[in-house]
């Protein structure tokens, strides 16, 4: 059958309209689901911060985003709080610097900034209640993104893997409370020598960790505090068959906490209103 010119144009027009409508519907679905996923992610992260630091309704949390400006060799901090957005900039050596704004009021060279993760500063009644620092490290298969919680004395209050692609049953076990609970209670000063061992985990410590999420924190601390102190001087017990993933998270926690402690000494006076 031979189609005349008008029929060809009609069919082409119909297909174009159908394709455009399909693309519009798919685009709308994507935008809607993407917004929902982003809102769910933010809510999940906020819940994780509160749980890791055992925050109550009286606590407030300040989110600080960190960026690297490679060309200027500067680290940028942006805090969104009740008083509006505050931006701080330091050289890699720790010297404060001013960054000129662009014509539209935003910081210049925005597209050249490299995200370095976030930190959450919790306060209660005007006093520090703890910190949660976002970090990432290279795992066995891909990037591992995690949160490290520190109390006001810089002891680890918790570690939580929030994104990974490690193998189920092997490297993925680093996202389980049994593994992550090993970091809790360790002082930041001792992380520089923290190592990973392939030795089997002691059964009493394993039993205590399995009860960690099922027992109220004060009760668990009262019963297993001495065990936690004993293990704080020992290495992290690797997941069987996943030493690379275990070591990757441990190295990531160490470097993330070390970076935070050095940088917090710089930005604390500015965030707490002592300087501007």
Describe this structure in words.
It is globular and about 90 Å long. The chain has a domain of 180 residues. With 276 residues, it is α+β, with helices and mostly antiparallel strands. The mean pLDDT is 84. It contains five helices and nine strands. The chain has a seven-stranded antiparallel β-sheet, with helices on both faces. The chain has a two-stranded parallel sheet with strand order 8-9. 38% of the residues lie in helices and 25% in strands. The termini are far apart.
Short characterization:
This protein is α+β, with helices and mostly antiparallel strands. It is built from five helices and nine strands, in the order αβββββββαβααβα.
Outline the fold blueprint.
Layout: H1 5-52, E1 59-69, E2 74-81, E3 84-91, E4 114-124, E5 127-138, E6 143-150, E7 156-163, H2 177-180, E8 196-197, H3 203-210, H4 217-231, E9 236-237, H5 243-271
Parallel strand pairs: 8-9
Antiparallel strand pairs: 1-2, 1-4, 2-3, 4-5, 5-6, 6-7
Structural class by SSE content: alpha+beta
Number of strands: 9
The averaged pLDDT comes out at: 84
Beta-strand level of the residues, as a percent range? 25-35%
Q: Gyration radius, to the nearest Å?
A: 24 Å
- Determine the N-to-C terminus distance: 79 Å
Instruction: Please describe the biggest sheet, giving its number of strands, its sense, and whether it closes into a barrel.
Output: 7 strands, antiparallel
Tally of separate helices: 5
Give start-end ranges of low-pLDDT stretches. none
Morphology call: globular
Strand order of the largest sheet: 3-2-1-4-5-6-7
Considering DSSP H and I runs of 4 or more, what fraction of the residues is helical?
A: 25-40%
Helix and strand sequence: HEEEEEEEHEHHEH
């Amino acid at each position: 059958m031979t189609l005349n010119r008008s029929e060809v144009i009609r069919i082409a027009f119909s297909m174009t309209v159908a394709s455009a409508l399909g693309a519009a519907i798919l685009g709308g679905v994507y935008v809607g689901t993407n917004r929902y996923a982003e809102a769910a992610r933010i809510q999940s992260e906020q819940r994780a911060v509160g749980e890791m630091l055992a925050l109550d309704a009286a606590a407030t949390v300040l989110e600080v985003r960190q960026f690297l400006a490679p060309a200027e060799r500067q680290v940028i901090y942006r805090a969104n709080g009740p008083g509006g957005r505050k931006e701080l900039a330091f050289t890699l050596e720790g010297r404060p610097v001013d960054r000129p704004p662009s014509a539209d009021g935003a910081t210049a060279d925005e597209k050249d900034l490299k995200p370095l993760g976030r930190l959450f500063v919790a306060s209660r009644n005007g006093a520090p209640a703890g910190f949660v620092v976002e970090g990432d490290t290279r795992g066995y298969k891909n990037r591992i993104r995690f949160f490290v919680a520190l109390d006001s004395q810089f002891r680890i209050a918790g570690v939580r893997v929030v994104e990974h692609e490690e193998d189920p049953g092997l490297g993925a076990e680093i996202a389980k409370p049994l593994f992550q609970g090993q970091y809790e209670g360790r002082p930041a000063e001792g992380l520089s020598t923290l190592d990973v061992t392939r030795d089997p985990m002691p059964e009493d410590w394993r039993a205590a960790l399995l009860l960690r999420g099922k027992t109220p924190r004060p009760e668990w601390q009262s019963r297993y505090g001495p065990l936690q102190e004993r293990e704080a001087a020992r290495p992290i017990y690797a997941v069987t068959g996943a030493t690379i993933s275990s070591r990757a998270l441990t190295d990531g926690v160490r470097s993330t906490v070390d970076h935070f402690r050095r940088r917090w000494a710089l930005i604390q006076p500015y965030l707490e209103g002592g300087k501007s």
